[in-house]
């Protein structure tokens, strides 16, 4: 850990939320490759923006082109990948942005670290809402979709440590939202998430009028 550094206080999150007129939170999509995480997250981001909600999506592949381009797919690298994303998501949410992350994030322990991080805030501020969305799909259906051909390569041994084939996926036990992406449309999945946000008073009043 770096030394000789000092934490500099800024505006409180509650002040930012009042000034921006919206609350910040993280919606954490998790699920197998080809489960539909990115597709649903993209549609949700577009919907929130059309409602006038400041939203931003962090995509698993995209982040590995920049911030995490030094990481591979070993368990240790996957752990670090999720740790970094959790930190970035918290920063976005702290800035009163609806933050969407779409990562396989296969390990329960890593997702717990992300959740706990959002609960660690400055004195006087409430924990940042962390909404785990489990995009659930039978692996057989995911393999049938396989838009990137990754399952085929994993079965052939070309890709090592592939989640669901040669590496584990630990499904969430109590996610805030559970979506069976083989049974509902993308549009219905977005509606399901938006209704949850409404129920938790996480959408600004102006968005509810649209």
Automatic annotation (TrEMBL):
The lineage of its organism: Eukaryota, Fungi, Dikarya, Ascomycota, Pezizomycotina. Keywords: Amino-acid biosynthesis, ATP-binding, Cysteine biosynthesis, Kinase, Nucleotide-binding, Transferase. This is Adenylyl-sulfate kinase. Its EC number is 2.7.1.25. It holds the Pfam family APS_kinase. Pathway: Sulfur metabolism; hydrogen sulfide biosynthesis; sulfite from sulfate: step 2/3. Signal peptide: none annotated. GO terms for biological process: cysteine biosynthetic process; hydrogen sulfide biosynthetic process; sulfate assimilation. Residues 23-180 form the APS kinase domain. Belongs to the APS kinase family. Catalyzes the synthesis of activated sulfate.
